[in-house]
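Lab channel / #folding
Pinned by the channel admin:
"Please post every new chain as: sequence first, then the structure tokens as a reply. Keep commentary short and put observations after the output so the thread stays searchable."

First post following the new format, from NK:
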Amino acid sequence: MDPLGPAALVARKESPGDVGTHGPPVLPTKPPRLVEPQSVGPDHTAFTKAAISLIPKPEYPLAALQDKIEGDVILNVTFDKSGHVVFRSFVQQLKDEELNTVARETVERIKFSPAKRDGVSVDQDAVITFAFRLTQLTLTASF
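Reply from TO:
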């Protein structure tokens, strides 16, 4: 086998004289080949996130208020395709079980329009954070 590889062999066959003494081999050229653009396949889909329309106002439990308990409760949930919020698990809980229960019950009452993929309703997982503060109560959702 030629140490310069198959391309050099082709060039030697087409080049007159001794290629090794006249510089590098002259390789045959081909006209550039046009490449047709490829169409985008069906793997590209349109996706719309779930749209929350109503977040019920949770009641701050009286005992937690009196004991001045604050903190965050973080939950994993699924906004399902039929319009229900399904509790999956707690990511973070408070020592006060009543605040954890309020967070879970409130999230299960959220009203929303399901996520859609190509116009068809689909499940969407989310993380919901309840920030229990004595001055205000906030809720955020991350999709």
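NK: The chain has two domains: 1-28, 49-142.
TO: also worth noting, Confidence is low (pLDDT under 50) at residues 1-20, 25-41.
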